[in-house]
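pasting for the record
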Amino acid sequence: VFFFFFPAEAAKQTTTTTAFITTTKVAYGVSIMVTGALRVGNQAVAGQRLYLQARPAGQSTWFDKGSAWTGADGKVAINAGARSTNVAFRCVFRGSGTHRASTGAPVYLATTQTLNFSGFPVTPEIGTDWTFSGTATYGLTGKNVQLQSKVGTTWVTVATSKVSPTGAWVAKIRPGTSGTKTFRLNFPGDDTIPPTQSAERQVVAHKWFYLASITPTSDTGYYVREYDTMGGVTYRWTQGPYYSSSPWKATYNTAGKCTMLAGTVGIRDTAPSGTVSRYEIWRDDAVAKSEEVSVGYGRFVTQNVRDAFRVSIAGERTTGTNHVAFAGARLYCSSSPY
């Protein structure tokens, strides 16, 4: 006759298991340490194996994240790894010959997601499509994020974008006013992810200002003609010399807010055959571009005027009379030159 004796379950000591974290919120990608404790009443239980389990937000299954043996103080410290989503943690003791199994209450950790700009317009033109793009961290995949513009002290949503499976977002807008505009990307938060915003980005919206409609801050020998023909093409509102024998110049204050001058320059077809004149574009007090042109054609020219505080267009006689003129001269600026 064999007798088998099994320790009665009732003889085992009842344990309690607890998990602790030092914060309730952590940034995306940051590792977190979880502390676990095993006790019988108020007494620490040493030399027992505790398991750390995690349950990502939106799921019902608990997963083992690691384990460790309790020290003399009945505690363990387990690295739960880098966080990408909201998560709940708990510690589990699976029992021993002397102690009953126990499962601790969950503790909750919110993971702050990150939004970034990677592409945005620098000096775009009003009335055209502006494309903003960037990245979002894993927890925002499939979520709608908001492109917002700051109006006074209020953030106004101007476009929305759904974050792709690769974490990319793209948003387009078409502003109608020039000047400096401030943008950010916003996720307003939901049941599982706290609100988050990107860093702010400033964009200077530009438009073309036609100089024939602006009175120069100073001028010599200059006037505006309603029509002029250069190279057989008739242009509206050209700028040129008042007297054909004199040089002319028109200067505009730009206050460093313009980036480009553009226009068609040439000799009026009414000038005598063989007439050659020189046009000039000035940045502040220096000639930035100067070329001779002949009667019979117009030439489209551009000049970088970024950071200039004054911009001038001018004409000089080279041979015969001075008939050089600018058609459609315009400045690309965030506010009107004067």
